[in-house]
Amino acid sequence: GYGAIVGANSVVTHDVPPMTIVGGNPAKFIKKIEPREKMS
Questions:
Q1: Does this model's pTM top 0.85?
Q2: Which residues touch 11 (CB under 8 Å, ≥6 apart)?
Q3: Can you tell me which residues the record assigns to a coiled coil (predicted)?
Q4: 6 SS3 class
Q5: Which terminus of the chain, N or C, has less C-beta within 10 A?
Q6: Residue of 36, 38, 11 whose CA lies nearest to 22
Q7: CA R_g for the chain
Q8: What is the DSSP code string of 8-36?
Q9: How many CA atoms lie within 13 A of 14 on its CB side?
Q10: Would you list the domain boundaries of the chain?
Q11: Collapsed DSSP state (helix, strand, coil) of residue 5
C-alpha cells in the first residue's frame, strides 16, 4: 500500500495496507504510520 514500509528479508504473502510497517517471515503487521501535520 501507499507509504508502507517492509522490513529487510521479509517474506510478503499478502497485500500490505497503506501507511503500515510490516516485517518477518511471513510478514506481519508491526505498526501504523501516523501522518505528520504540515508546519506553516
A1: no
A2: 24, 25, 26, 27
A3: none
A4: strand
A5: C
A6: 11
A7: 12
A8: TT----SPPPTTEEEETTTTEEEEEPPPP
A9: 10
A10: 1-34
A11: strand
Sheet holding 28-32, edge to edge: 5-6, 20-23, 28-32
- Spatial separation of the C-alpha atoms in residues 33 and 8, rounded to whole Å: 17
**Residue whose cell numbers read 501516523:** 34
pLDDT at 25: 96
Residue tagged 501522518 (cell numbers): 35
Q: Which amino acid is at 34?
A: E
pLDDT per residue over 1-40, tens digit each?
A: 999 999 999 999 999 999 999 999 999 999 999 887 765 5
Give residue for cell 506553516: 40
| 27 alpha-carbon distance from chain centroid | 10
